[in-house]
Amino acid sequence: MPPSRVPLPPWSLTVRVLHWGLVCCCFAAWGTAWLGPPSALAVHVWVGSSTGFILLVRLLWGLGGPWWERFAFFPLRKATLHLHTRQILSRQYPPEGHAWPGHPPLGAAMVVALLVLILTMVLSGTIAYGGIEKAGPLGSWVPFSIGELAGTLHATMAILLLLAVGGHLLGVIVESRLLGSALVRAMVIGRRDGSHTPPVMIPASLPPLRLWGGASLITLLVGLSALLISGHGPVHPLPLWQTEEEANATAIYEQECGACHMAYPPALLPASSWSDVLATLDDHFGEDASLPAAKVSALQGWLPRHAAESWDNKAGHAFRRVDYHNPTRITATPFWQDHHRQIPIETFRQKNIGSQGNCRACHQDVQSPADSGGFHRAEIAIPPR
Amino acid sequence: MRSLLIVGGLAAALVTGTAAWAAGPRDDILAALAAQAKAEQPAFTGFDAARGKTFFQSAHSGGKPDTPSCTTCHGMDPRQPGQTRAGKSIEPMAVSQQPTRFTDQEKIDKWFERNCSSVLGRACTAVEKGDFITYLSQQ
């Protein structure tokens, strides 16, 4: 069949839904990350997962959707990109003869850049969530250091993505004016041949692939249902086999230390600080908190085993650094200070909070001191006055 | 009918047993403290709730500066819950509110040792301890 001319084919419903889905996801992700409270991480992660599914469907659709929406037909040759740039700069656009059936060359390049950027965001976000918060599908697998690296990448790429979206919008405006047709409207209703748009050339041989299109729709359905039923809570470490000595020391810690204040998760101070605490119990933050020698000795074995250095999570890494002048005060550590600076002192004095030492009042996943202490961002809720 | 009687008897025994347990230890503890007080001060004639109240409520010197008085943490009214300096709630000291108060020798020793050191900067005398318990038992 020789190449023939047809009117511009419409954007398929799939591409349109996925496009606006991605738009919503991007803005929701930026909003929850930059403007929301720390607990907005729960929504952020949900949005990120949705973005991942949309991308997956778009990738499959790009392999098997209508031909003008397939990656194989993206006009990305270097010569084509040059030609398109020259046409736009010299305002000889649309060129005589025909328009691009799918995305024009520069637009296609931007689409690929956006998809790659968003894919990187989803991957780096998942790795960061796993490594730092110990949650999500990679929660048990990624070391903290890798998670932190991915987090930095994630934050940097977010700005890059914002710039790319700006470029995309600029391209859409330029193209709309040159073609005399509203591209945004086309992405909503599908039909995109305006009064000035020339017909397009359809390729001589059309690929018969239908399999990928079907697969992408099935993925969409499976993905949506998976999103609806899946939770994104933190991964709790499996209960470890406990020795009698371990259980005994935990009980002493909870009972004795927990008598006057919350039994702080030992991950909140390094081992050296805990040694200091045990050595100075007769003057413990201005009070005599002496313990019988046998109990002190049990805690001397137990506390360093559970101290900050023993945990590859956010609390464990953040609380290894202490205040030089006040090495036993958790609320004096640089991390604590930095992360509670915005909370007014009156809030801590609220009746249902009591003091800065009552972590549990707001960090609702802080339960047994024997575990890492939780401190998942999505579990933070300051109780109302 | 017979089994009902047995159950009733058991229940009665349990109730009186519990009551005896609740009252007994505190009296024994006070008796031991009285013997100690007599040894410390031959002029000792008995514990006094009024003295205990003054001891509980007044500001002392010699202890750690953050804790000048029992009331720093326990509050002026022993029938109300107190609060540690770290913000944790302390159950009322008054026996009427907390019937198990002053029935566990180990617990009594531990907290007198710590808190006398924090508030007074020394160990409490047997008279002070006895007055303290007598006052709070009547609250």
Automatic annotation (TrEMBL), chain A:
GO biological processes: respiratory electron transport chain
Any one cellular-component term (Gene Ontology): plasma membrane
Record keywords, A-Z: Cell membrane, Membrane, Transmembrane, Transmembrane helix
Domain Cytochrome b561 bacterial/Ni-hydrogenase, residue spans: 11-188
Compartments reported by the entry: Cell membrane
Topology term for the membrane: Multi-pass membrane protein
Pfam families per the UniProt record, alphabetical: DHC, Ni_hydr_CYTB
InterPro entries linked to this entry: Cyt_b561_bac/Ni-Hgenase (IPR011577), Di-haem_cyt_TM (IPR016174), Dihaem_cytochrome-c (IPR018588), Hydrogenase_cytochrome (IPR051542)
Transmembrane segments: 17-36, 43-61, 106-129, 141-163, 209-229
GO molecular function: electron transfer activity; heme binding
SUPFAM superfamilies: Transmembrane di-heme cytochromes (SSF81342)
Matches recorded under PANTHER family: BLL0597 PROTEIN, NI/FE-HYDROGENASE 1 B-TYPE CYTOCHROME SUBUNIT
Protein name: Cytochrome b
Species per Swiss-Prot/TrEMBL record: Insolitispirillum peregrinum
From TrEMBL, chain B:
Stretch forming the signal peptide: 1-22
PROSITE patterns for the chain: CYTC
Domain Cytochrome c: 47-139
Alphabetized GO MF terms: electron transfer activity; heme binding; metal ion binding
Domain of life: Bacteria
Upper lineage: Bacteria, Pseudomonadati, Pseudomonadota, Alphaproteobacteria, Rhodospirillales
Region called Disordered, residue ranges: 58-102
Protein name, entry field: Cytochrome c domain-containing protein
Originating species: Insolitispirillum peregrinum
Any single Pfam family the record assigns to this protein: DUF1924
UniProt keyword list: Heme, Iron, Metal-binding, Signal
